[in-house]
Amino acid sequence: MVVMTGPSGSGKSTILKRSMADDPRLSLSVSHTTRAPRPGEQHGSDYHFVSDDTFDEMIAERAFAEWAAVHLNRYGTSKAEIERLWEAGKDIVFDIDIEGAKQLMATFPDALSIFIAPPNFQTLEARLRGRGTESAEALDTRLDNARGEIAQANLYRYIVVNDELDDAVATFQSIIAAERRQTKRVLQDTLRAFSDHQTDDDPASSEPASDSHAPTEGPES
Ligand code: 5GP
Asked: I want to staple 46 with a disulfide (CB 3.0 to 4.6 A). Which of 1, 31, 41, 80 is the partner?
């Protein structure tokens, strides 16, 4: 599990897209949001775009593993999305804001957390203005929020400064590679392969091994 946060304009989405293209095991958790789709965004692959009423119902049904009001809208990760990716054996990446990240880090203390930072505030502002996707009000909110987020970057296990995109992508990928080589994760993969092998070879053991696809942290609550 990779919990990833970075201010709007930090280049987080680009780093993620490039890394996922190189590494099919990484899979982005698709969030629910009350924000309107931007041109080109697809329902179900960029976000599940929902109304305020639907979002309220999901909160009432405790359907979210985390949610937060971000900028001028609400965003949340559904428990169903985590379970879906979990069952597919993916390394799940959460692109979420700092409030949501704190909630997931509390639930999954073993999750890898990475903060993507711009090299400086001027670059961030220039990138956001250049993108031209936000109204003046939304842009100011995003810039204000960026200050607050950068001030809390110390909560994350790693910080990747996105000055040169190629370097930032390489750093991000090397952090993921190192994380996968942690002894406990390697042993877990070995055990998983061993139990898969046993299941394949032994027709008598047609029951799936109870924990054979469980990554380190299981979806809780
Ligand atoms: P955007 O509107 O630019 O797509 O996203 C705005 C912010 O919402 C980004 O910082 C993004 O990380 C955050 N965000 C996206 N999905 C979620 C989510 O499911 N939960 C939380 N807490 N934040 C999210």
From this structure: 41
Report pTM: 0.84
Residue 99 CB coordination number (10 Å): 16
Judge whether 215 lies within some domain. Answer: no
From the CB of 65, is ligand 1 less than 6 Å away?
no
CB of 2 within 8 A of CB of 91?
yes
Domains held by the chain: number: 1
Whether the CB of 35 sits within 6 Å of ligand 1? yes
Range of 73's domain?
2-201
Residue 74: per-residue pLDDT: 98
Per-residue model confidence as pLDDT tens digits over 106-132 = 999 999 999 999 999 899 989 888 887
Cα(180)–Cα(175) distance, integer angstroms:
9
Q: Kindly report the CATH number assigned to the domain that includes residue 151.
A: 3.40.50.300
The model's confidence at residue 199, banded by pLDDT at 50, 70 and 90, is low
CA of 67 to the centre of ligand 1 (A): 9
67-98 residue pLDDT tens? 999 888 999 999 999 999 999 999 999 999 99
